[in-house]
Amino acid sequence: PGTIVRASDDKEIGRLTSTTHSPRLRSTVALALLKYQYLADGTPVNVLVDGSKLEGRVAELPFVKGSWRDS
C-alpha cells in the first residue's frame, strides 16, 4: 500500500491502497486511487515492487463475475 502507480508513459497517476492474492484468478489483485482520466477499463498501468516493474491494467469492479453475493 502506498506504492506509486504509473501510466504506460511512466507518469505518476496514483497510489495502491491494498493488494492481495486471488485464488480464483490465480494472480495478485490490487485496489488503487487513480487520477480520473486513467479510470477507463483496460488502461495499462505499472508499479515498481522490490526493484521489479509489474504491469497491470485497470478493471471494473467486481474483478470476477458471479461472486458469492450473486448466489
List the helices and strands and how they pair.
Layout: E1 4-7, E2 12-22, E3 27-34, E4 44-49, E5 52-57
Antiparallel strand pairs: 1-2, 1-4, 2-3, 4-5
Count of alpha/pi helices: 0
Q: Structural class of the helix and strand makeup?
A: mainly beta
- Counting copies of identical and different chains, the oligomeric state is single chain
Strand order of the largest sheet: 3-2-1-4-5
First and last CA, distance: 31 Å
* Beta-strand residue fraction: over 45%
Biggest sheet features: 5 strands, antiparallel
Number of strands: 5
Order of helices and strands: EEEEE
Explain what the structure shows.
It is a single chain. With 71 residues, this protein is mainly beta. It has no helices and 5 strands. The protein has strands at 4-7, 12-22, 27-34, 44-49, 52-57. The chain has a 5-stranded antiparallel beta sheet with strand order 3-2-1-4-5, with no helix packed on it. Strand 4 and strand 5 (52-57) form a beta hairpin.
